[in-house]
Design a protein that fits this description.
The chain is of the alpha/beta class. The chain is built from 23 helices and twelve strands. The protein has two domains: 356 residues, Up-down Bundle (ABC transporter transmembrane region fold); 238 residues, 3-Layer(aba) Sandwich (Rossmann fold). The strands form three sheets. It has a six-stranded mixed sheet with strand order 6-9-10-3-11-12, sandwiched between helices. Its main location: membrane.
Length: 651
């Protein structure tokens, strides 16, 4: 949206949330199957598939180097063991002669072992060969570490790019969502999805993807090396894999629901905290601190229980897989020792195989340990995707018409609208506001006054009828074009963190300093701004607590004035200020209304006596319209409202 459009929407006063259907991933909805969200999250890697291919290649090189190293280290062990045994045998004879002598001496087991070794009787350890083996092993591990670091570095760039794009997509989506969505969703939960859940997705991808890639490749590489050394022992090691997968799947199935509940509870708790802090003064004034604390304790306890159960159940995966790995280690150690004693395997090969068996189960253990993190990240991704799947505002026409001249004539023609189909609000409403007219809209609370001006801004789409701006249907205009022609001043003034100058210029960012000060003078901002320490450079804090409510309202009027709209909407702009400031605001708005069509929503009927047209609404219908004097003479709805304020409330 354009800046002007943003000005309009952000000034909308916060109000009670309208109940609506529970969105997917919102607190209270049923947990969905996480696999579709997992696939959807992984599909976001497609634009980076070349980089992912490089990561896989680099990781594969690292795994290959790591897989070769134990076999080389086993050769070093063979050199040491062969040297020790060779030094114990008589020099001057061949290995076959030494084996025969041992058998003749009744040492058959020792003879079997020596027959499977590369010993030279009378010769000790070959330290030069051992040094070369150790140097190769060192180079292998060093190279593996370098390639591992490189794969992690590249993967970090990919993951952060994916999360950056996801965050930007969510931001763009929010600006395309209709106001109806924000009315039906908790602000705290929405903020939690945009911040906490996306951060959790980032953390989960960062920590799991690298480990998953390396672990999967390690399992394959180690399995190949084990088969090369001993197919029989490799078969024993592989037997633990289906058991590990079965255990992981069963435990993950039970923890999935709790991870979904954990992040739903996080959103609900954030919503409560945001609401309690925003309304802290009201909570204190009405003495509801205990109720707020009790509600916090209830939601905090729900979050604790969900988090505890998710982490506890998923935490069982790693110990279970480690137990299976230890059983596998014992079986391989016993059988390997027997084969060394029989001379069918060398000690170095058994040592290498035992090391491979530990490395083989370690990736499975790591994958099991990461399941909880993956489930947590996918649960968060599901909540983020729920925002991206929401229905958007209807797109603008490709060639949207625009009024030839910005006169400011607004016509409602048989307009119908309702927030929900079963409760009609506005039906067959017709009204014409001529250029330059001041149209005041009055009526009891819930009559549809604010809804009427929201329809002019296309915050909601009509159910029937048309609204014409200078003869052009606003449903056919682009929203940016429509809202750039409308200025709005609300009852609850909203200012951004920044200087007074920045807040005034928000209505038109390209405004010059002279134009900013001119708008400030017309709106009486210039009267108080010079009493501030830094004048127009005074920084307004987040709550705008360093200036008064009336001063904030005058700044919003200056902001609307500098945008030079052809239509002005004033929604109870003077209701929250004192009498003296009200006069200033009235004078400022009178100047602002000059030569502009203006819609004024008012409860203080004294402020709209000079309106060109007063529209009285009840239950979404216009029951009366006319001038102040004419409506008093009819002694109808307006007459009763007027008397309730200036004579006495009718019972």
């Amino acid at each position: 949206m354009s800046d002007r459009a943003t000005t309009t929407t952000t000034e909308r006063p916060a109000g009670p949330r309208i109940p609506g259907p529970v969105a997917p991933g919102a607190p209270g909805s049923k947990p969905n199957d996480l696999w579709p969200s997992t696939k959807r999250l992984l599909r976001r890697l497609r634009p980076h598939r070349i980089a992912v291919g490089v990561v896989l290649l680099v990781a594969a090189v690292s795994v290959v180097l790591t897989s070769i190293a134990p076999r080389m280290l086993g050769q070093g062990t063979n050199l040491i063991f062969d040297g020790i045994i060779g030094a114990q045998l008589p020099a001057g004879m061949s290995k076959d002669q030494a084996v025969a002598a041992l058998r003749a001496d009744g040492q058959n087991t020792f003879a079997d072992m020596v027959s499977g070794m590369a010993v030279v009787p009378g010769v000790g350890i070959d330290f030069s060969a051992l040094g070369r083996v150790l140097a190769i092993v060192l180079a292998l591990y060093l190279g593996s570490s370098v390639f591992m670091w490189l794969s992690g570095f590249l993967l970090n760039i990919i993951v952060q790019g994916v999360v950056k794009n996801l965050r930007a997509e969510v931001e763009r989506k929010i600006h395309r969502l209709p106001l109806r969505y924000f009315d039906s969703h908790s602000r705290g939960d929405l903020l939690s999805r945009v911040t906490n859940d996306i951060d959790n997705v980032s953390q989960s991808l960062q920590q799991t993807m690298s480990q998953l890639i390396v672990s999967a490749m390690t399992v394959i590489g180690i399995l190949v090396m084990m088969i090369v050394i001993s197919p029989l022992l490799a078969l024993i090691a592989v037997l633990t894999v289906p058991l590990s997968i079965l255990v992981t799947a069963q435990i993950a199935k039970r923890s999935k629901t709790h991870f979904v509940s954990q992040w739903k509870s996080t959103g609900a708790l954030n919503s409560h905290v945001e609401e309690a802090y925003t309304g802290h003064e009201l909570v204190t004034v009405f003495g509801r601190s205990r109720e707020v604390e009790a509600r916090f304790e209830e939601q905090n306890e729900a979050l604790y229980q969900a988090s505890y159960r998710a982490q506890f159940i998923s935490g069982l995966i790693m110990p279970a897989i480690m137990f299976l790995g230890n059983l596998n280690f014992v079986a391989i150690a016993v059988l390997g020792g027997m084969r060394v004693a029989s001379g069918t395997m060398s000690l170095g090969d058994v040592q290498a195989f035992i090391q491979y068996s530990r490395q083989f189960t370690q990736p499975l253990t790591q994958i099991g340990a990461m399941v909880n993190l993956m489930q947590s990240g996918v649960a968060s991704a599901e909540r983020v995707f729920a925002i991206l799947d929401e229905d958007e505002e209807q797109p603008d026409l490709t060639e949207a018409p625009t009024p030839a001249e910005p006169l400011g004539r607004v016509e409602f023609s048989d307009v119908s609208f309702s927030y929900s189909p079963e409760k009609p609000l506005i039906e067959k409403l017709s009204l014409v506001a001529e250029p330059g007219q001041m149209v005041a809209i009055v009526g009891p609370t819930g009559a549809g006054k604010t809804t009427l001006v929201n329809l002019i801004l296309r915050f909601y789409e009509l159910d029937g009828g048309k609204i014409l701006l200078d003869g052009v249907d606003i449903a056919e205009m682009s929203r940016d074009d429509l809202r750039s022609r409308i200025g709005m001043v609300l009852q609850d003034a909203w200012l951004f963190g920044g200087t007074i100058r920045d807040n005034i210029a928000y209505g038109r960012p390209d405004a010059t300093e002279e134009e900013i000060q001119a708008a400030a003078r017309i709106s009486y901002v210039d009267r108080f701004v010079h009493s501030l320490p830094d004048g127009y450079d005074t920084v307004i804090d987040e709550e705008g607590s360093n200036i008064s409510a009336g001063e904030k309202q005058l700044i919003t009027i200056a902001r609307a004035f500098i945008s030079q709209p052809s239509i002005l909407i004033l929604d109870e702009a003077t209701s929250s200020v004192d009498t003296r400031t009200e006069l200033l605001v009235q004078h400022a708005t009178a100047v602002l209304r000059s030569d502009r069509t203006s819609f004024v929503i008012a409860h203080r009927l004294s402020t709209i006596r000079d309106a060109d047209l007063i529209v009285v609404m009840e239950d979404g219908r216009i029951v009366e319209q006319g001038s102040h004097d004419d409506l008093l003479l009819t002694r109808g709805a307006y007459y009763r409202l007027y008397n309730s304020q200036f004579v006495g409330a009718e019972v």
